[in-house]
Design goal:
Helix content: over 70%
Distance between the termini: 142 Å
Mean pLDDT: 91
Strand content: under 5%
Number of strands: 0
Order of helices and strands: H
Structural class: mainly alpha
């Protein structure tokens, strides 16, 4: 009788231990998932910051390219104006030239 009671207590303790172990395992899985979520958040923030820095560099680069293109456009516009003046001058000389 005493042996049966001890075996029953052992089984009961074993079940409680397994339940506690299962609860601890579930907590471990839960916290590992939270750690993974935080690591993923860190990676996302790193990517975001990299994109912001890259965008800043692109803005600077494209601003410089725009300024260069604008200067080239101004030079070409001035050159075109000079060419137009030369053409008009040549046409007026041709009209006024009576030797032809």
């Amino acid at each position: 009788m005493n042996l049966k009671r001890v075996k029953a207590e052992i089984i009961e303790i074993k079940l409680k231990f397994e339940e506690a172990l299962l609860a601890l395992y579930k907590k471990r899985i839960f916290y590992e998932a939270r750690v993974c979520e935080q690591e993923l958040a860190v990676i996302r923030h790193t990517i975001f910051l990299h994109d912001v820095v890259e965008t800043k560099h692109n803005v600077i680069k494209f601003s410089d390219q725009f300024a260069e293109s604008h200067q080239t456009l101004q030079k070409q516009t001035e050159f075109l104006g000079i060419c137009r003046d030369m053409k008009n001058e040549f046409e007026s000389k041709m009209k006024n030239d009576t030797t032809i």
